[in-house]
Write a structure and sequence with these properties.
13 helices; 2 domains; alpha/beta; Rossmann fold; seven-stranded parallel β-sheet; 307 residues; Arc Repressor Mutant, subunit A; 39% helix
Length: 307
Amino acid sequence: MDYEKDTTVKIAWKYYNEGSTQTEIAKELNISRMKVVKYLEKAKSENIIEFKINIEDLTTKSFQNKLIEMFKLKDVYIIPSSNNYMYSLTTAAAQYIEDRITADTMINIGYGETVSRTLGRLNISTKYNVSFVSLSGGVKFYMPTAIDHQSDYYTNPNYSHFILPSPLRVSSEALASQIKKEKPVIDIFNLIPHSNMTIIGVGALNERATLIKEGLLTRGDMEILKSKGAVGDLLSQFYDINGNLIELDLHKELISTDINLLKSLNHVVAVAGGDDKREALVGALKGGYIDVLITDEIAANSLLNQY
C-alpha cells in the first residue's frame, strides 16, 4: 500500500467505522481539517468506500497497529518493498510532510542521505511559509540541488533556511565546545525546540552509512563501534540495542543536537527502511526517540520478527 492510499484508507476507517469527527482525525494525524475532507472525497472517488471500506485495502492495518502498540508510536506508514525502496520511501516521506504544512511551519532536519532525498522531493505550495532548521552541522554539504529532483526546494521564495554554520565533526572537544558558544550557532539551537515537525534518518553500522561516505568515519571505526555495543546512530550519535547512548569521545567532537532532545520535540518522524536497519530501528524505537515511523515492508517485518 502506498502512502496516499494508506492515508486515505486510514482516514476513511476512522471517519466511517470508528465515528471520529473530521476535526478529531485532523488533530490525531496532525493535518488540517480541509485535508481530511480531501482524503474522504478521494476515498469515495476511488471506490475505497461504498457504504463500507474495502477490506482488501486494510491488509496492513493490523500490521501497523502491532508496531504502534509495540513501540508506543503515534503512527506508522509502511510502503511496499521494491528494488528502489529509497525512492519510494523518500517520496512517501515527502508526501507526509506536504500534508502537514500549514500557513507557517518550522521543520527540523537531520543529517544523512534519506533526509536529503526527502527534501529533494518536496513540492509545497508557495502560499505557505516554511522554515527548515538543521539539527547538526555539515548539513549544507549534502542538501539537495535542483539537479537532484524537479522540486521547488530551493526556488520557493517562501522557504527559509536556518543552517548551523559549522562542520558536523571538528578536531577536538575543546573546539566543539567553543563553536557551540558562538552566537550564530546558539541562535540556531534555540530555534529547534519550537519546530512543528522533525525529520530524521536512522543510521546503520555498515559501509553505506553517510558518515563513511562523507569521510567522517572509516570502516574500521564502524567495527570498533560495534564492539562497544553500538547498533545505530541518530544525528551521528551512537546507541545500543535498548536505545542507550554510548559514551564515545566522538560525540564530544560533534556540532549536533543531543539525541535526548528528540524525546521532547514535536512530531519526530523517522524515515528508514531496508533489511539492514533492523537493529538500528529497534534501538531507536526502544529509546523513545521517534513518534512516527515511515518504513518499508522488509524493515517492518524484521521489527515484528524481533519479538
